[in-house]
Amino acid sequence: LHSWGQTLTYHPHLHCIVPGGGVSPDGTRWISCRPGFFLPMRVLSRLFRRRFLEELRVAHDAGRLGFFGNLAHLAKPDAFARLLAEVRRLEWVVYAKPPFGGPEQVLAYLGRYTHRVAIANSRLISMDDDRVAFRWRDYRH
Predict the structure, then answer these.
(1) What is the 3-state secondary structure (H, E, C) of 31-90?
(2) Which of 8, 33, 82, 91 has the fewest beta carbons closer than 10 A?
């Protein structure tokens, strides 16, 4: 889960691996999915949104989520329900593509993101007691 983009603006997003198959029930072999097994992106987006928000609600109801600072009010069931209703109305973007190589390339690609910090040392230009300057790219323009 990342909550930022290159410019450090709020941009929550996930990187996931979806296997194209699974282990047989007896655990002895890999069974590949038929070609074209992915759902259409719009269906996948809405299904993911529904399931994700359902699980968030379950976690909230069970007291497994913590809220601090200016988000402390979300600990209250009515405030959390309003937030879920608000984000449920948004279109969530889901993008999926077949692997661009084998499993090693997929893991290398995702590995670059799973242990990333918001500002890598290589992006730092200067800093003092009051400011930090860093390089960034505006991918949208």
Answers:
(1) EECCCCCCCCHHHHHHHHHHHHHHHHHHHHHCCCCCCCHHHHHHHCHHHHHHHHHHHHCC
(2) 91
